[in-house]
Protein backbone atom coordinates (compact mmCIF):
# COMPACT_ATOMS: atom_id res chain seq x y z
CA UNK A 1 0.00 0.00 0.00
CA UNK A 2 1.19 3.50 -0.78
CA UNK A 3 2.39 5.31 2.37
CA UNK A 4 -0.22 8.08 2.35
CA UNK A 5 0.40 9.00 5.99
CA UNK A 6 4.11 9.45 5.32
CA UNK A 7 3.28 11.49 2.24
CA UNK A 8 0.95 13.70 4.29
CA UNK A 9 3.73 14.20 6.85
CA UNK A 10 6.17 15.27 4.11
CA UNK A 11 3.59 17.62 2.59
CA UNK A 12 2.95 19.26 5.98
CA UNK A 13 6.68 19.60 6.65
CA UNK A 14 7.31 21.07 3.18
CA UNK A 15 4.50 23.60 3.64
CA UNK A 16 6.34 24.93 6.71
CA UNK A 17 9.75 25.17 5.04
CA UNK A 18 11.02 28.17 3.09
CA UNK A 19 10.59 28.35 -0.65
CA UNK A 20 13.32 26.72 -2.67
CA UNK A 21 14.77 27.86 -5.98
CA UNK A 22 14.27 25.41 -8.82
CA UNK A 23 18.02 24.68 -8.70
CA UNK A 24 18.05 24.10 -4.93
CA UNK A 25 18.34 20.84 -3.01
CA UNK A 26 15.49 19.51 -0.87
CA UNK A 27 16.63 17.34 2.04
CA UNK A 28 14.32 15.03 3.99
CA UNK A 29 14.85 12.31 6.57
CA UNK A 30 13.18 8.92 6.73
CA UNK A 31 13.30 5.66 8.65
CA UNK A 32 13.21 2.19 7.12
CA UNK A 33 10.20 0.64 8.84
CA UNK A 34 9.37 -3.09 9.02
CA UNK A 35 6.74 -2.70 6.29
CA UNK A 36 9.42 -1.32 3.94
CA UNK A 37 11.38 -4.57 3.98
CA UNK A 38 11.78 -7.37 1.48
CA UNK A 39 12.39 -11.05 2.24
CA UNK A 40 16.08 -10.30 2.99
CA UNK A 41 15.05 -7.84 5.69
CA UNK A 42 16.34 -4.79 3.86
CA UNK A 43 14.65 -1.87 2.10
CA UNK A 44 12.59 -3.29 -0.76
CA UNK A 45 13.60 -1.97 -4.19
CA UNK A 46 10.00 -0.97 -4.96
CA UNK A 47 9.67 0.87 -1.66
CA UNK A 48 12.95 2.64 -2.47
CA UNK A 49 11.21 4.15 -5.50
CA UNK A 50 8.27 5.15 -3.32
CA UNK A 51 10.56 6.85 -0.81
CA UNK A 52 12.09 8.78 -3.69
CA UNK A 53 8.51 9.95 -4.45
CA UNK A 54 8.43 11.29 -0.89
CA UNK A 55 11.37 13.51 -1.81
CA UNK A 56 10.08 14.73 -5.17
CA UNK A 57 6.63 15.84 -3.95
CA UNK A 58 7.94 18.25 -1.29
CA UNK A 59 10.64 19.45 -3.70
CA UNK A 60 7.88 20.33 -6.17
CA UNK A 61 5.92 22.07 -3.42
CA UNK A 62 8.86 24.14 -2.20
CA UNK A 63 9.84 25.24 -5.72
CA UNK A 64 6.27 26.25 -6.59
CA UNK A 65 6.02 23.64 -9.29
CA UNK A 66 3.21 21.73 -7.56
CA UNK A 67 1.10 24.89 -7.29
CA UNK A 68 1.75 25.90 -10.92
CA UNK A 69 0.90 22.42 -12.21
CA UNK A 70 -2.28 22.25 -10.13
CA UNK A 71 -3.36 25.74 -11.24
CA UNK A 72 -3.12 24.65 -14.89
CA UNK A 73 -4.89 21.35 -14.10
CA UNK A 74 -1.85 19.48 -15.31
CA UNK A 75 -0.49 16.26 -13.91
CA UNK A 76 2.89 14.65 -13.59
CA UNK A 77 4.35 11.34 -14.62
CA UNK A 78 7.62 9.50 -14.27
CA UNK A 79 8.61 8.85 -17.87
CA UNK A 80 11.76 6.90 -17.07
CA UNK A 81 14.21 6.19 -14.30
CA UNK A 82 17.63 4.68 -13.75
CA UNK A 83 18.51 3.49 -10.24
CA UNK A 84 21.78 2.44 -8.66
CA UNK A 85 21.54 0.39 -5.47
CA UNK A 86 24.89 0.33 -3.67
CA UNK A 87 24.32 -0.15 0.07
CA UNK A 88 21.72 -2.08 2.00
CA UNK A 89 19.27 -0.10 4.09
CA UNK A 90 18.13 -2.20 7.02
CA UNK A 91 15.19 -1.98 9.39
CA UNK A 92 15.12 1.14 11.58
CA UNK A 93 18.07 2.74 9.82
CA UNK A 94 17.71 6.44 9.20
CA UNK A 95 18.28 7.81 5.75
CA UNK A 96 18.73 11.28 4.38
CA UNK A 97 17.11 11.81 1.00
CA UNK A 98 18.38 14.59 -1.28
CA UNK A 99 16.45 15.83 -4.32
CA UNK A 100 17.46 18.31 -7.00
CA UNK A 101 16.46 19.23 -10.53
CA UNK A 102 19.52 18.92 -12.74
CA UNK A 103 18.05 20.20 -16.00
CA UNK A 104 15.54 19.74 -18.75
CA UNK A 105 15.02 19.39 -22.46
CA UNK A 106 11.97 20.30 -24.56
CA UNK A 107 9.74 17.56 -23.06
CA UNK A 108 11.24 16.29 -19.81
CA UNK A 109 12.71 17.47 -16.54
CA UNK A 110 15.55 15.44 -15.06
CA UNK A 111 15.71 15.02 -11.31
CA UNK A 112 18.56 13.48 -9.38
CA UNK A 113 17.95 11.93 -5.97
CA UNK A 114 20.12 10.09 -3.50
CA UNK A 115 19.69 8.25 -0.20
CA UNK A 116 22.43 8.58 2.39
CA UNK A 117 23.04 6.68 5.61
CA UNK A 118 25.88 7.55 7.92
CA UNK A 119 27.44 9.85 5.32
CA UNK A 120 27.58 7.08 2.67
CA UNK A 121 25.39 7.05 -0.43
CA UNK A 122 23.17 3.96 -0.44
CA UNK A 123 21.03 4.57 -3.53
CA UNK A 124 20.90 7.02 -6.41
CA UNK A 125 18.25 7.64 -9.05
CA UNK A 126 17.85 9.71 -12.18
CA UNK A 127 14.19 10.43 -12.94
CA UNK A 128 12.86 11.69 -16.25
CA UNK A 129 9.63 13.46 -15.40
CA UNK A 130 6.91 14.76 -17.66
CA UNK A 131 4.16 17.26 -17.04
CA UNK A 132 0.95 16.15 -18.72
CA UNK A 133 -2.47 17.41 -19.68
CA UNK A 134 -5.40 15.80 -21.51
CA UNK A 135 -3.46 16.06 -24.78
CA UNK A 136 -0.28 14.41 -23.54
CA UNK A 137 3.06 15.92 -22.57
CA UNK A 138 3.21 19.63 -21.76
CA UNK A 139 6.43 21.14 -23.12
CA UNK A 140 8.91 22.39 -20.56
CA UNK A 141 8.81 25.94 -21.93
CA UNK A 142 5.10 26.05 -20.99
CA UNK A 143 5.87 24.62 -17.54
CA UNK A 144 8.63 27.16 -16.97
CA UNK A 145 6.32 29.98 -18.10
CA UNK A 146 3.71 28.79 -15.58
CA UNK A 147 6.44 28.90 -12.92
CA UNK A 148 7.21 32.51 -13.86
CA UNK A 149 10.52 31.49 -15.44
CA UNK A 150 9.86 31.93 -19.17
CA UNK A 151 13.50 32.71 -19.97
CA UNK A 152 15.12 30.03 -17.80
CA UNK A 153 17.73 27.94 -19.57
CA UNK A 154 18.59 24.43 -18.49
CA UNK A 155 21.99 23.98 -16.95
CA UNK A 156 24.10 21.70 -19.14
CA UNK A 157 23.12 18.12 -18.41
CA UNK A 158 26.04 15.99 -17.19
CA UNK A 159 27.52 13.48 -19.64
CA UNK A 160 26.12 10.52 -17.70
CA UNK A 161 22.61 11.98 -18.10
CA UNK A 162 22.95 12.75 -21.81
CA UNK A 163 24.43 9.27 -22.30
CA UNK A 164 21.39 7.73 -20.60
CA UNK A 165 19.03 9.84 -22.71
CA UNK A 166 20.84 8.78 -25.89
CA UNK A 167 20.89 5.10 -24.91
CA UNK A 168 17.17 5.22 -24.14
CA UNK A 169 16.46 6.59 -27.65
CA UNK A 170 17.66 3.26 -29.04
CA UNK A 171 15.44 1.18 -26.78
CA UNK A 172 12.68 -0.53 -28.75
CA UNK A 173 9.17 0.62 -28.01
CA UNK A 174 6.93 -1.19 -27.75
CA UNK A 175 9.02 -4.08 -26.49
CA UNK A 176 9.65 -6.76 -29.06
CA UNK A 177 8.20 -9.65 -27.05
Automatic annotation (TrEMBL):
SUPFAM superfamilies per record: Thioesterase/thiol ester dehydrase-isomerase (SSF54637)
CDD domains according to UniProt: 4HBT
Superkingdom as given in the UniProt entry: Bacteria
Protein name: Thioeseterase
Naturally occurring in which organism (per UniProt): Maritimibacter harenae
Lineage, top ranks: Bacteria, Pseudomonadati, Pseudomonadota, Alphaproteobacteria, Rhodobacterales
